[in-house]
Design a protein that fits this description.
By secondary structure, the chain is an alpha/beta fold. It contains 6 helices and 11 strands. It has a single domain, classed as Rossmann fold, CATH 3.40.50.720. The chain has a 9-stranded mixed beta sheet with strand order 1-9-11-7-6-5-2-3-4, with helices on both faces. Helix 1 runs antiparallel to helix 5. It is globular, with a radius of gyration of 18 Å.
Length: 267
């Protein structure tokens, strides 16, 4: 099996840089349309009757990461939270272990991943003082390298993904809808997804939020799609709370439906 390596990642980095330059120069709404395929269905939380899992959450102290940690603990799973600064983690629970770690160090990640059922990457760059939006691709490369080295016994990988790589009904990328100063982050997230789609020997899943996501109420229900934006009842960009995004993530661990694929959720 041909596995993407350093050259493939370097190529994706170059492609992301070129695409960033091109899209930053385009007026909003411009771009090449590509056919998009989508199907939506209703999803709901599977709180009861699921086997207990051992889950690693990298970046579990962030806005979405902390809600994923809480959702997993509330369902009875064991969670290892990996953070750059464990002292900033306030969550306490008998089934929660907090560790210091670096998502860009695949050798150390393998030790953390041993004996786990699933790994969730909730790393992000937007809140950094000096954001490096290529972090998403570099993290993807590091995570895949760590899991690949573990062989068939490696845990699943689930990724907190981006919105910009989704497409509207005309096939245009959603990132064309966002202000120019926000495009680099979406391009970085898209480059990571493009990389994951070259990977066949690691069980990965990429979960894109809809156009609007914020802290809110846990309803325990949502609709699912794949590569097309989910719209609301008025035809606008869909929304979901961070709490229900976390529900969808843990649902996918408990009842896998999108291994080796991207999916998205919204109300």
């Amino acid at each position: 099996m041909r596995m993407p390596g350093t050259a493939a990642v370097a190529g994706l980095l170059r492609a992301a840089a070129v695409m960033a330059t091109t899209l930053m120069a385009l007026p909003l709404g411009a771009g090449t349309a590509t056919p998009a395929v989508a199907a939506t269905a209703t999803g709901a939380s599977s709180d009861a009757g699921s086997a207990k899992q051992r889950i690693v959450v990298i970046g579990g102290s962030g806005m979405i990461g902390q809600r994923i940690v809480r959702e997993a603990l509330d369902r009875g799973h064991e969670v290892t939270l990996v953070a750059r600064d464990p002292a900033k983690v306030s969550e306490k629970h008998e089934r929660l272990k907090v560790m210091q770690g670096d998502v860009l160090d695949p050798d150390s990640l393998r030790a953390v991943f041993a004996g786990q059922n699933a790994v969730i990457s909730a790393v992000g760059a937007a809140r950094a003082r000096e954001p490096d939006y290529l972090l998403y691709l570099r993290a993807a490369d590091s995570l895949v390298a760590a899991l690949r080295a573990m062989g068939e016994g490696a845990p699943r990988l689930l990724v907190v993904g981006g919105f910009g790589s989704l497409r509207d009904a005309s096939g245009k990328l959603a990132l064309e809808r966002v202000p120019r100063d926000r495009r680099p982050e979406h391009l970085g997230q898209k480059a990571a997804l493009d990389f994951y789609r070259t990977v066949a020997d690691v069980r990965w899943t990429y979960l894109s939020p809809p156009g609007r996501i914020a802290p809110g109420e846990r309803k325990g229900r949502y609709r699912t799609g794949e590569d097309r934006l989910i719209l609301d009842d008025q035809g606008g960009v869909g929304a979901i709370s961070m709490e229900d995004y976390a529900v969808a993530m843990i649902d996918e661990i408990e009842k896998p439906r999108f291994v080796g694929r991207r999916f998205t959720v919204a109300y």
